[in-house]
Amino acid sequence: MSPVADMSVPDSELSPGQLSRRTMFRRAGLLGAGLTAAGVLGTQGQAAAAAPERVRTGSEPRDGYLWLAGDHHIHTQYSGDAMYKVTDQVRHGRANGLDWMVITDHGSVAHAKIGVDKVNPDIVAARQVIKDTLIFQGLEWNIPAAEHGTVFVAPGRNEVATLKEFENTFDGAVKNATPSTPQNEALAIAGLNFLADAVKARRVEAALFLANHPARKGLDTPHEIRAWRDAQPGIAVGMEGAPGHQAAGIPKPNGGGSGRGYYDNSPSADSWSGYPAESYKTFGGFDWMTSTVGGLWDSLLAEGKSWWITANSDSHTVYGDASDRGPGSDFNANGKYNDPIYKGTPNLGNGDFWPGFYSRTHVGAKSFEYTAVMDAIRDGRVWVDHGGLISGLVVRARQTGTGQRGVTLGDTLHVRKGAKVEVAIEITLANQPNWAQFIPTLARVDVVQGDVTGPVTDKDVFTTPATKVVKSFDVGKNTGTVQFTYQVGAVDRPVYVRLRGTDGNRSAAGLLGAAVDPAGPKIDVFGDADPWKDLWFYSNPIWIVPRG
Q: What's the whole-number average pLDDT of the chain?
């Protein structure tokens, strides 16, 4: 029997990797409770080698899906401001419980010329060695006229050629197309059309784009976000609800003393003038577009637009790590830095965590496959958390009293007009210490509901008046499972429902007033924002639409 499964072996005697794996099995409910470790985990030797360790990838299906944790925003030595090897990031992400990862080195002249080619063998080698983790190749697109975004494709013989052509043709930095002009906005749309055409022509099986740290510099205007989504809703599917760089807010001298996510900017010449000053800060670690109830994200959902949120590490240089870039590096000439070296001194000024250490994006996949993960993201079966606040989330909207199973995150429940609807919520609590070595306590779960009012005439609108927190459930526990039912009631108009939860450590009335959001995330204090003391989770929405 593996020591991971042998509960007579105490946690203290396991290696960090073994402890991480046991932790994942515990969260999935696959240790104890009468389950035999041999039956679930297999045995050592030939039987174990015969199949991937799929159990660690989200356990047995829950609610009909494998809920796989991942990160779509990770940098390596092929980025001009990062330093780690691909295998460094993947092994840490795997040890931290991730099932899928996307390598997203920065679009740049050097990367477009040679880096996109050079990183691929490292990714392929990692796929061969670490078979129970899905490793995508992507890039961080300098969106023309806007900020950054993740672009990635399904693995295949054309993945490098497609990404390279995309970057050379449509990257804002490569094409000198960063200013906010109509021509550059059109170039961004052309880039999304290129990806859609690549899928249609079967050059790649699938492609996705998600906007990264969208409010950080005020560059992603509401009309651009709507234009991306409307041009290619099967490609442009969402944004980071919470940015990476979450360690950046740890106060000095124990941290860098900046803003969570490096949200430490002021408006520039290219920033959209309509954004308020608060938009340049995070709230409970989440982007203003997501954290404001009735704000920009809700304004898109109120149109009925499928636009999803994620949470990622944006890992470049890790807080407390004692590594440094390899000496003698010439990034511009080689498209990469030499392999990192150990310098012996932990760097507390670094603002990032390893993938999976703090931020996780959970997707409900139908199988443990690359395209299944991409399908789940595209369909909105996604919830996100910080600091291991919760371990599992199942949400179902269904017609009351019918015994129907209903629909889950990202889907639409159709009912007859006047039918009563309820939302069933099941949360698996943290149950065990996170990587900061404490067990988070979920204090409260909020239900946010909004009316679906249809398309807007003003494409730059970023509020919606009929969205608010409609119900809060007190929890105050960190063990076991809790269940709640929110009664939507008789449905006479289209609505949507989404969830968020908090440890309750920091709250304030929302930016649109206490009547809309009485106890939302509080604005993060620049230079004094310990991410472990302010934990939240968010779900994507479910729509409820009456017929007749």
A: 91
